[in-house]
Amino acid sequence: LPLTPNGSTPVRALTIAGTDSGGGAGIQADSRTMAMCGVHACVAVAAVTVQNTVGVSGFHEIPPHVVADQVRTVVGDIGIGASKTGMLASTAIIEAVTSVCVEVGIGRDASIPLVVDPVCASMHGDPLLHAEALDAIRNTLFPIATIVTPNLDEIRLITGIDVIDDATARRAAEALHALGAQWALVKGGHLRTSDNSTDILFDGDTILEFTSPRIDTGNDHGGGDTLAAAITCALANGYSVPDAVAFGKDWVTECLAASYDLGAGHGPVSPLW
Ligand code: PLP
Q1: Whole-model pTM?
Q2: What pLDDT sits at residue 129?
Q3: Domain 12-257: CATH architecture, name and number where available
Q4: Residue 121 pairs with which residues in a beta bridge?
Q5: EC number(s) of the enzyme (predicted)?
Q6: What distances in angstroms separate CA 202 from CA 146, 166, 170, 175, 271, one per listed residue?
Q7: ipTM
């Protein structure tokens, strides 16, 4: 992505998500990715997780009106080119985020594109979303998304479809699109059936495929956040959705190759360079 010369105002993006005290995923991965992509990161904290490289032991939700106020206050002053959502924890936060996005012009039918990463659980299976909030993800947040980026576990929870091959991936893309998102990305990274990782992108009309080599590393914490944040950065720079996904996929592949050991568990995808 183009870098801004020192001293001039860079492109800005906003992440609405949860923190990770271990610095690997969530808002930390988003902010680091945005900075590394030359984009100034604004953050609206929706939840604080108690987390290290081994797992998430708890989380604390920010009051919904405080989440919405963070969005309102940065969009009005700083102005942003694109936004993303990550961990939103509860129905009340999802509803508050959706209405403030509509109010300030974030979303598929507004001027600021919205990437929705429907975070439900950590890779260890620790919940990051109350189960009853799945309805709000489906019925409230998805209909304003420019693109949704669920992983295979999230697809199963949201659509009931178990993605095991190309045919089920296509069915899942159709089901996600039918919930109202402009574009649906079905991420094949967790499907361990080949040496490649193939994602499919669907806009209700055309299916596009994105393939990259599978990088086998145990240091894969925050991979979904890193991909969605990189897509957000590309959209903030004016890329089309397919070009932004191509950029994000290359970015996360490079990050996986450069990820590092940390703690006793999974190190972060988002490296430092
Ligand atoms: N913690 C937060 C705040 C997150 O947003 C996410 C992922 O989206 C995770 C943890 C889980 O990351 P992973 O599934 O890579 O462990």
Answers
A1: 0.97
A2: 96
A3: 3-Layer(aba) Sandwich (3.40)
A4: 127
A5: 2.7.1.49, 2.7.4.7
A6: 12, 13, 8, 10, 30
A7: 0.93
Q: Measured in angstroms, how far is the CA atom of residue 126 from the centroid of ligand 1?
A: 9
pLDDT above 80 for 193: no
- For ligand 1, whether the C-beta of 224 sits within 6 Å is yes
At 13-48, the pLDDT tens digits run 999 999 999 999 999 999 999 999 999 999 999 999
Query: Residue 233's Cα: distance from chain center in Å?
Result: 11
- CB of 119 shorter than 6 A to ligand 1: yes
Q: Is the dihedral of CA 62, 65, 71, 74 positive or negative?
A: negative
Nearest atom (ligand 1) to Cα of 119? 8
Per-residue pLDDT at 233: 98
For the chain, give every domain's residue range. Answer: 12-257
Question: Ligand 1 centroid to 177 CA: how many Å?
Answer: 24
